[in-house]
Specification:
The chain is mostly helical and about 200 residues long. It is built from 8 helices and 8 strands, in the order H-E-H-H-E-E-H-E-E-E-E-H-H-H-E-H. The chain binds iron/sulfur cluster. The site of iron/sulfur cluster has 10 residues, from loops.
Length: about 200
């Protein structure tokens, strides 16, 4: 159960995170092609969330217009139905909060939504880039598509001074690190977003 105190601590953490991620996005800007109107990262995914992040989204819902809430509820019902027939382990779907190609809960979005777009280290310290690299977007200007890795050769050819770098912005790290511990923030288990809907 997420308490008001948890949400207060989470808000403090989000301020810290916003500043930190803002610096990373600025530093990596030669490789970031996110732009208004592009919602590719919210159209197909699992969206790993924790209890606290999901509770914060639910607070955000209360600020929306009734017609938007109705659309979100319909999207959630559709996801539940799709999950019912689609029993494969990895279930990818559009985020139900994506309305008219925009996040309806932008201020309340999860941590993965905030860090998405940057190259990052996974749990095994492998460097990963966002899936939109295959659409000619983030990091595609320095990516070796054959070997599925950032290419130092391609980077040299760009003439860009700032190197393409991965940061520790995987959701596992961002929900469990020295700052979250200092704040006493226990995010709990990370689950695909749809699992929160199936609880009802
Ligand atoms: S909550 Fe918003 S930013 Fe996050 S996946 Fe859904 S639509 Fe995208």
């Amino acid at each position: 159960m997420v308490s008001i105190e948890d949400i207060q601590k989470y808000r403090i953490y989000l301020k810290y995170l916003e500043e930190k991620l803002g610096k990373y996005f600025e530093e990596q800007s030669p490789y970031i092609f996110c732009k208004a109107g592009c919602s590719s990262c919210c159209e197909k995914g699992e969206y790993p969330f924790t209890e606290i992040e999901f509770a914060y989204l639910m607070i955000g819902i209360q600020t929306l217009r009734p017609d938007i809430i109705a659309k979100i509820e319909q999207n959630i019902q559709d996801i539940k139905k799709q999950r019912g027939v689609n029993k494969e382990k990895k279930f990818l779907h559009a985020c139900p909060f994506l309305i008219d190609k925009k996040c309806s809960l932008y201020e309340y979005r999860g941590i993965i939504c905030r860090s998405h777009g940057l190259a990052f280290f996974d749990k095994n310290q492998h460097i990963l880039v966002p899936a939109c690299v295959d659409e000619g977007l983030n990091y595609s200007n320095v990516y070796d598509f054959q070997n599925r890795t950032i290419s130092s050769e391609k980077y040299k050819q760009t003439g860009i001074t700032q190197e393409p770098l991965a940061h520790n912005v995987g959701v596992y790290y961002l929900t469990n690190n020295e700052i979250t511990k200092e704040l006493g923030l226990d995010f709990g288990e990370i689950k695909p977003m749809y699992e929160f809907f199936l609880k009802d």
